Amino acid sequence: MNSLVQASQAAGSSVGLDVDRITINGGIPLRGRIEVKGAKNLVTKAMVASLLGENVSVLRNVPNISDVRVVRSLLEIHGVDVTEGENPNELRLDPTNVESAHMEEIDAHAGFSRIPILFCGPLLHRLGAAFIPDLGGCRIGDRPIDFHLDALRKFGAVVEKLPQGIRLSAPNGLHGTTVHLPYPSVGATEQVLLTAVRAKGTTELKGAAIEPEIMDLIAVLQKMGAIISYEPNRVILIEGVDKLEGYDHTAIGDRNEAASWASAALATDGDVFVGGAKQQDMMTFLNIFRKAGGGFDITDDGIRFYRKEELKPVVIETDVHPGFMTDWQQPLIVALTQATGESIVHETVYENRFGFTDALNTMGANIVVHPNGLSGTPRRVPRRNLEQAAVINGPTPLHGADIEVPDLRGGFSHLIAALTAEGKSTVSNVGIISRGYENFIVKLQQLGADFVLETK
Ligand SMILES: CC(=O)N[C@H]1[C@@H](OP(=O)(O)OP(=O)(O)OC[C@H]2O[C@@H](n3ccc(=O)[nH]c3=O)[C@H](O)[C@@H]2O)O[C@H](CO)[C@@H](O)[C@@H]1O
Ligand SMILES: C=C(OP(=O)(O)O)C(=O)O
């Protein structure tokens, strides 16, 4: 292990949080084995669910990422006692002494994550009131919370918007209702689940998101005593119960992290075994990966990813599950700069998710972003007003450059670009990447990357 990585680990920065810049000597294929742990997009929500239980929950396979730290801290502010479990990567969450929020401390968490919005239902059930600070998360569009607030109002919550956040109360308790989401939002689906499980009566949720992380959250809630049935056509029925217990759960693996390392293997012409990657959760990704010239071998404990043939262009439409996940497009686009011909990526989930391509163009890529999308090609996903498209023409050799991470997935794509490029690249603001990629610096080292770090 190189001494910089050792020093960084010794300083507790294996998470990568205090690393500011990384200078990568690119052009070396990534080879080796790494592991992904629990999905950021499930673990953080399962942690919130612990607030609903009468006693201790145990969550396993928890990754050491900064989003987990933020949620842990928010739970602690609310009186949940969060401790390390008996085994590595295990959290023990004890909600028996949940108290009212300490407003000032909550304010200090504004802008770090989107998870606070999911505290609404559990806090309303437990305390009859909630205060939610301004949300963070990736700046990839407006990211409104109207579906969340509309649903909460239907349950009987009173919502007051203040300059520093949102105050909620439930003077008459929360009651089961019918919610029809205008779009299968992941967060709003989770909001309804976390609120309906203890509301009085039955809730019918129409237009629900059905991502694997949502199915895993439903599994967590069922373990706690909830009654939730999944009906055809994105309908979920939730029968409210009076009381929920703690849970013992092992989080599903992070399919988004797995897809990112797979894309890194493809772009650098490497060969990476991703322990913890699951075929069932990544089928749509695997189809595109194969069409682009990638090869994969599936085993019980993970998936090996490599370049099988000369890279080929593909057309992708991002979509809700079971479509091509929007969080997969940024890392894969770097590999597509090395494919012979024209690839098109239609981004249909968020309105501003191609900002990261500017840096790739600086490095020699040929990517043209169409801010209002592209029509004229046959489509799987109905055209949305907010969509954009990126047209990638390759192959274009990439050369080293100084680039700055804009957001989580864009940041990982910058790392891949620097690893693919000939020569030295300096990637700054890499701390953001630790929001969703556990120990990415150690993993880069394990895969043979050549780099040096600068800490803050
Ligand atoms: C922590 C987490 O799990 N984040 C994931 C979650 O984000 P998140 O839950 O925030 O994403 P949503 O599924 O809610 O957002 C999808 C679309 O719905 C819109 N919308 C959403 C809520 C709302 O009240 N009003 C509204 O208009 C959004 O602006 C966006 O255009 O799902 C996204 C889509 O798979 C992923 O990219 C994120 O990684
Ligand atoms: C958009 C993402 O996350 P978040 O919703 O937490 O900002 C992501 O994981 O790519």
Automatic annotation (TrEMBL):
Its EC number is 2.5.1.7. Its main location: cytoplasm. It catalyses: phosphoenolpyruvate + UDP-N-acetyl-alpha-D-glucosamine = UDP-N-acetyl-3-O-(1-carboxyvinyl)-alpha-D-glucosamine + phosphate. InterPro entries: Enolpyruvate_Tfrase_dom, Enolpyruvate_Tfrase_sf, MurA_subfamily, RNA3'P_cycl/enolpyr_Trfase_a/b, UDP_GlcNAc_COvinyl_MurA. Keywords: Cell cycle, Cell division, Cell shape, Cell wall biogenesis/degradation, Cytoplasm, Peptidoglycan synthesis, Pyruvate, Transferase. It comes from the Bacteria. The modification 2-(S-cysteinyl)pyruvic acid O-phosphothioketal is found at residue 138. Cell wall formation. Adds enolpyruvyl to UDP-N-acetylglucosamine. Belongs to the EPSP synthase family. MurA subfamily. This is UDP-N-acetylglucosamine 1-carboxyvinyltransferase.
